[in-house]
Amino acid sequence: MKQNIAPINREIVMRDDDFIVSKTSPKGLITYGNKIFIEFSGYTESELLGKQHNIVRHPDMPRAVFKLLWDTLNSGQEFNGYVKNLGKDGSFYWVFANVTPSYAADGTLLGYYSVRRKPKKEALHIMQNLYRDMLAAEQRTDTKNAIAASTQLLTDLLISKDVSYEKFILTL
Q1: Counting CB atoms within 10 angstroms of each CB, which of 2, 36, 78, 90 has the fewest?
Q2: Are 38 and 63 in contact (CB under 8 A)?
Q3: Residue 42: its pLDDT value, please?
């Protein structure tokens, strides 16, 4: 169960050579977190294992981004994206995340493997503004239509740039 943590305006910046690694079950329960994940999240290993990965979800993140992530993973593809995470103490840290489905030899989904690294500083400005606008779109409408409103904003941006989501993210 996610704890109610009040965000504070204190950023923890990843070091250039840091890689946050975690693994989850098919239902998103954390089965592994490396020392860097433990450090940046502020949780102990025992506090993380068996918990939903959204334990580090920052409220500034639009819900539409996570719908895109799950739609991408459920189609068997890897997901790349910028994510603002929430530490146990309310601090935040930005990551560039790569999340990949992990399969057994027989094709059975074992879970997900995620590697996060320090995001490009110049890309963060673009993503912060986009996510702020997407979150505002979600908040302007009812819960039922929030994700669609936010997704439409992202879709309109991609159409205006004539790029796919993947190309947009990977070329920032």
Answers
A1: 2
A2: no
A3: 98
- Candidates 27, 106, 113; CA nearest to 78 is 113
Residues 6 or more apart whose Cβ sits within 8 Å of residue 54: 2, 28, 66
CB 162 within 8 A of CB 156: no
Q: Report how far Cα 107 is from the mean position of its chain's Cα atoms.
A: 25
Task: Give me the residues paired with residue 32 across strands.
Answer: 23
* pLDDT band, residue 3 (cuts 50/70/90): low
Kindly report, residue by residue over 70-102, the tens digit of the pLDDT: 999 999 999 999 999 999 999 999 999 999 999
Tokens at 101, concatenated? 């489905």
* Amino acid, single-letter form, for residue 92: F
Q: What residue numbers bound the domain in which 64 lies? A: 19-170
How many domains would you assign to the chain?
1
Whichever domain contains 28, its CATH number is 3.30.450.20
Helix (H, G, I), strand (E, B) or coil at 26: coil
DSSP 3-state assignment of 16?
Answer: coil
User: Predicted confidence band at 1 (pLDDT cuts at 50, 70, 90)?
Assistant: very low
What pTM value is reported for the model?
0.95
Residue 65: both structure tokens together: 């981004």
Is 110 in a helix, a strand, or coil? strand
Rounded distance between C-alpha atoms, residue 109 and residue 103, angstroms: 5
